């Protein structure tokens, strides 16, 4: 596996976004695949100038173009958004770093030491009232992750504030291309054109240009995003938490969480990640914004969905428990074939169908699209 993205530009095919080990191999590829095509560079949809806001890029969910909501006045939406921000207790329980808990190990201690908060609001430096955020990750050494893509959108206007690739300082060990579609050549070509942010520090600095402590940050499972940005924030509207609370209750523990893809399908009747089925930070940020707006604008419909989801979850949970009991019966109560001359003294008697309590499996409670944000490849 390739260890980092420091590949020469003259070894990258900018049509296929592929890297070759030598210029000779690239030349043979170009001659066979592209003939005499002009040497143009295709635009990288994830690499844009990070310093200036960009207009919204249209995304298509089924046959519908992305559009902003105007069902409620912005002030009403903002008030509801603030009222639905999660408590510090809930955020801690869900793994958000708030700068108060003691680090578990040296690596976590280093991250906590680097973690800061946004500035307090001032009239001289106004910021956005709410933003939608999404990041994509790649694996580095010791099983850790770092950001390689970040997108920030103004929650109310849909204005694209930041959409850029990020080049980590440490070598990338696990690219997780199957999750987000970003390959070594993608990052190498963008870096050669100066279209990447250098490390999480630069990504965080760009984000801080648009937020302060009063800005509401909206997204789907932002724990890892903020942790890898070394940013602690108190006003969080997490669509995964909000929908799970609607199903199980505000103070209850969650036995599952719903992925962004399933929420878009269930609540909005919209399909994301079509075609390649990979994550795109911009698409996911826009989709999370849509889900959040739907939940704010249609609280009664959210309750109806939660009631159906709770009923369906109970049925699925009962089926899993029944399958587990059946497997245990087959394992523990099956009578072995005795050896020759073996006398049965009753040790293998089946004393009945005593039922064990259900023990949830890891995959029963974790949705890989939710946690971690970019799971390690199974390859």
TrEMBL record:
SUPFAM superfamilies, alphabetized: Ribonuclease H-like (SSF53098)
Record PROSITE patterns: ZINC_FINGER_C2H2_1
Gene Ontology molecular function terms on file: exonuclease activity; nucleic acid binding
Keywords (A to Z) from UniProt: Exonuclease, Hydrolase, Nuclease
Stored Pfam families: RNase_T
Superkingdom in the source lineage: Eukaryota
Protein's GO biological process: ribosomal large subunit assembly; rRNA processing
Database matches in InterPro entries: REXO1/3/4-like, Ribonucl_H, RNaseH-like_sf, RNaseH_sf, Znf_C2H2_type
Signal peptide bounds: none
Compositionally biased tracts (Basic residues): 309-331
GO cellular component annotations of the record: nucleus
Domain C2H2-type, residue spans: 12-34
Ranges for region Disordered: 309-338
Name this polypeptide is given: RNA exonuclease 3
Organism expressing this protein natively: Fusarium napiforme
């Amino acid at each position: 596996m390739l260890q980092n993205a420091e590949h020469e530009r003259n070894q990258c095919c900018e049509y296929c976004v592929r890297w070759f080990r030598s210029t000779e191999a690239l030349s043979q590829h170009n001659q066979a695949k592209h003939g005499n095509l002009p040497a143009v560079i295709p635009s990288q949809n994830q690499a844009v100038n990070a310093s200036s806001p960009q207009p919204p890029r249209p995304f298509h969910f089924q046959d519908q173009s992305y559009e902003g909501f105007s069902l409620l006045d912005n002030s009403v939406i903002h008030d509801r958004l603030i009222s639905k921000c999660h408590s510090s207790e809930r955020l801690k329980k869900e793994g958000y770093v708030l700068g108060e808990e003691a680090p578990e190990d040296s690596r976590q201690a280093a991250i906590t030491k680097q973690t800061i908060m946004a500035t307090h609001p001032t009239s001289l430096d106004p910021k956005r009232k709410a933003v939608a955020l999404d990041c994509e990750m790649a694996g580095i050494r010791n099983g850790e992750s770092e950001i390689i893509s970040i997108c920030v959108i103004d929650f109310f206007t849909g204005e694209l504030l930041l959409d850029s690739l990020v080049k980590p300082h440490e070598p990338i060990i696990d690219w997780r291309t199957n999750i987000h579609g970003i390959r070594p050549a993608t990052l190498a070509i963008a870096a050669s054109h100066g279209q990447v942010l250098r490390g999480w520090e630069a990504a965080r600095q760009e984000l801080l240009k648009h937020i302060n402590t009063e800005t509401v940050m909206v997204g789907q499972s932002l724990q890892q995003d903020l942790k890898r940005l070394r940013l602690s924030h108190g006003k969080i509207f997490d669509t995964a938490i909000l929908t799970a609370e609607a199903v199980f209750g505000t103070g209850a523990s969650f036995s599952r969480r719903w992925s962004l893809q399933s929420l878009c399908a269930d609540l909005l009747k919209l399909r994301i990640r079509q075609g390649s089925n990979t994550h795109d930070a911009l698409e996911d940020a826009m989709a999370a914004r849509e889900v959040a707006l739907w939940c704010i604008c249609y609280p009664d419909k959210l309750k109806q969905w939660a009631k159906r989801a709770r009923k369906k979850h109970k049925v699925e949970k009962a089926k899993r428990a029944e399958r587990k009991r059946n497997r245990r019966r087959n394992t523990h109560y099956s009578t072995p074939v005795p050896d020759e001359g073996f006398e049965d003294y009753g040790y293998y008697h089946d004393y009945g169908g005593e039922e064990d309590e259900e023990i949830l499996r890891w995959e029963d409670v974790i949705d890989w699209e939710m946690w971690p944000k970019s799971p390690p490849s199974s390859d």
